[in-house]
Amino acid sequence: MNKDSLNQAEVLYDCSELPIKERLFGLRYNSEQKALFAVGMTSFFLFGFDGAGLSYSRHIACNQFGRAMRLLGWDPKDNFILIAERIMGNRENYHLIDCRAPDPIFISFLKSQPLKGTYYDSKKQRLFYIEVGVDQSKEIRLVDLKDFRVKYALDDQQKEWDLEFDTELYTALPPIHDMYTYFFMKMARGSLFFKPLRGIDEKNLKDAALRL
Amino acid sequence: MLMNFQLPDSLQIQAKKRQEFSRDFALGFLGPDKFVKLRECSKANGGTVLLGHHCDKLNLGVVLTREGSTLSFIVHSMKTAHSLRQLRLQIESNYTNYHSIFRVSSDGSTLLFFHESKTDIEIRNFNSLKKRGSFDLVTICRKFNLLEYFSSRE
Lengths: 212, 154
Description:
The complex is a heterodimer of chains A (about 210) and B (about 150).
Chain A: E1 24-30, E2 35-40, E3 43-50, E4 53-61, E5 69-75, E6 80-87, E7 91-98, E8 105-114, E9 118-121, E10 126-132, E11 138-144, H1 148-151, E12 160-162, E13 168-172, E14 182-188, E15 191-197, H2 202-211
Parallel strand pairs in A: 8-12
Antiparallel strand pairs in A: 1-2, 2-3, 3-4, 5-6, 6-7, 7-8, 9-10, 10-11, 11-13, 14-15
Chain B: H1 19-23, E1 26-31, E2 34-38, E3 48-55, E4 60-67, E5 70-77, E6 83-90, E7 100-104, E8 110-115, E9 120-125, E10 131-136, H2 137-143
Antiparallel strand pairs in B: 1-2, 3-4, 4-5, 5-6, 7-8, 8-9, 9-10
């Protein structure tokens, strides 16, 4: 926070030299792991620090998902990233990028989910999402990502997996008026805060996970 | 010439809060089957919520809201959800400059705030919201030879 430290600032990574023109739009720092996470339009960047300064940097390209991709969560402790890939009909496929191995492993784990709201609880490693029934009834469900490598017998040899992870019902929701189109969720002090929203713009949605 | 401002009833416009706002609610799930319904606190109601952050150590949360050209930081208790203090900031009423970012340091002591219409990053005390200093973006951009990408109002 010292203004004088600006003089000691240095460029960590210059993405202007990448073959695909990249645009960065979000940063997150985890002080426990001393890791910095930067989000671009088609790739992610991870930087680690130690007492001496920058200890590692990684570039994870995700061009295969196109530009209709948004971040769901980042788990620096267990080294994975969760993303949603937009598909037809305002729906998304969820993917996990396992960054523990030198080459990232891409796991598709949930398909065709409506764009209604998600929340990744990094403390308990659970991804919350909203499921809508044929009768428009809604429920909050979750995917428990703790020990997912063991649970689904994943090995480092295969670089792409197409799986359907187990999901659990967290709670059924009371009837909610149609004017609420998106649902904000956040875990704080062991309680899940849930707020229906009348609308959310695309820009806000894209980097909401980084901002909140 | 005197003008008569007494308009007929059919032409009178009365601004009042849209009805659907009063229907807004939130739920706090203490567990899968136990929830409490949370109503909006009129004292803290400062418009659309843009960003939020909470600090477990201090047991405090802060949200950034916008209503027209007024941005508000609202510090609230995580235990009671009551609003504790509020800071209002005037920004330009300009829809092209609406992007804001704020970050809280890991120890919960400092809040960094940037609004797209301004040329500095403010350093504020998380608890009191008082401004402690700022980083000048022009200086930062000059340091990294990025001035050509920086558009200032000046």
